[in-house]
Amino acid sequence: MSEMTWRCGIALAAVLGASGMVASPASAQTIQFSDTYLSIRGLLQDRQPGDPGLTKEVAGNIAYANGWTYGSNFVSLDFENFSHQDPANNALGTPQKGDSFETYSVFRTVASGNKIFGGGFSFGPIKDVGLELGGDIATQDDQYAAYKRLVVFGPQFSIDIPKGFWTISLHVSHEWDNDAYTTKSSTNYDVAPELETAWLFPFQLGPVPLKFEGFANVVGPKGKGNAQEAYHRTEILIHPKLMVDVGQLIGWLPNKIDAGVGYEYWHNKFGNTPPLASTEQNAIFIEAGYHF
Which structural domain, as residue segments, surrounds residue 152? Predict the structure, then answer.
């Protein structure tokens, strides 16, 4: 078993256990709703900082969300394949002719103010206020040898909308990574402010059931991971998508099969800035998935 596979397994076990996916019968009784989503997406215009060209990306994803007595949980695990054009494969002078593979896991848990205290956290457009804790773990088998670890903590605000959901989180974040390009391989970035928002708005356009969904992240300047690195500035990632509820459209079950198109905008990718090439990404992707 490779070190990357071991790290991926540990990360997945940790996030599944924390989210309640691995639960005893007694704890399962507190689950109020849950959704598991298995999907695949293709992005042909991915950009990697340092390379003026394009990299092809194909990713599989499994995501799980639930609501329970005192809050909610979210887990996502990406399995991403990057074509050999990825400059991280060739950075150290010995070309890596094959593709590279990345796993990226995300976990967020929210303690709901209204659920815990029986109300008192709704005002104006705010439906609820919670306290969010989470982390990201990522690893990739290219020559950069990324091993990202991120922790976030802060309040989450749920916006009152007629259908679906919209949340806005304000975090304090801290990231560690690995950088095989520099003499010192470990990186320890500055604590940085972070904003995360996620949304799902279902609506109907004639006979077509649609969902406008996605997420956006803004990460403040996080400085240098080590003395050899450049300063990392504010980065913005926006990932909206328009999905068709195919199951409902064909007269089968609603909220089962989704297919659609999305757009990914990434400003100062990974905190990198010009004159480094390809720090700005504008890419269209297609996605299809199934809800269990």
Answer: 3-291
